[in-house]
From TrEMBL:
Residues 32-161 form the Methyltransferase domain. Pfam families: Methyltransf_22 (PF13383). This is Methyltransferase domain-containing protein.
Length: 228
């Protein structure tokens, strides 16, 4: 894994990606950045980790007319957040089996797509404190073509060892980046921000440091946008 910087995101992973017009969707902690483009129809989007701020979901649904699914096992809302947004009190799978057993309901991302018979995902957003490290494994096992059916992937990578405690977590992050590149989803936008001081106090995994991955304090919660 090469150095990742906000100034030259296209140099990372060697991706010769064309720039996109980046738009801000949502506000506050719920904000994520996307490429401004009309999604293919019919369109759906998945939003894992909405917590108490689902402004991203309501704004994207209202502006595009896409059907949305918001996931979070830590909060409880009515099933219908908005006219086009359904809430599920469900977690995405984690590499930590004890954590998977802790939640009332757990799904893999490709498994949910298959269950709902969705052909294409306009946006997959993941901000769920660690679930991002399991998706590559789930894709490889359940649906190797999954990423070819995703138009944009907005993910927050949580670098502190609290969320990446094992070598497997680091390998699966590299696996994820390789899958995205192979499917033509190139890095379009980077925003490196801080996690909480408590989380950052756990430090960074040595394998990441050896790979020159950005692990400095105030840069450990990393919002990345991948798109074609």
């Amino acid at each position: 894994m090469r150095d990742l910087t906000a100034k030259k995101p296209t140099s990372w992973l060697g991706a010769d990606s064309l720039p996109c017009e980046v738009v801000h969707v949502g506000k506050g902690w719920g904000e994520h950045r996307l490429c401004k483009r009309a999604p293919a129809r019919p369109c759906v989007f998945y939003s894992f980790g909405i917590n108490r701020d689902y402004s991203f979901d309501t704004q994207y649904a209202n502006e595009t007319g896409c059907r949305g699914f918001g996931f979070d096992p830590t909060v409880n809302y009515l099933a219908q957040l908005e006219k086009n947004v359904t809430f599920l009190r469900m977690a995405a799978t984690s590499l930590d089996e004890n954590l998977n057993k802790h939640w009332y309901a757990v799904t893999s991302v490709p498994g949910f797509k298959k269950w709902q018979h969705h052909q294409q995902i306009a946006v997959l957003k993941m901000d769920c404190e660690g679930c991002e490290f399991a998706i590559a494994k789930d894709v490889a096992k359940e649906d190797p073509d999954f990423w070819w059916q995703v138009e944009q992937f907005a993910v927050e990578i949580h670098v502190p060892k609290k969320f990446m405690p094992t070598n497997e977590h680091v390998r699966e992050l590299a696996h994820l980046f390789a899958q995205l590149e192979q499917a033509g989803l190139h890095l379009r936008d980077v925003m490196l921000t801080g996690c909480s001081p408590t989380d950052e106090a756990s430090g960074c995994h040595p394998m990441l440091m050896q790979a020159n991955f950005p692990c400095e304090p105030t840069k450990m919660c990393q919002n990345l946008l991948f798109a074609r």
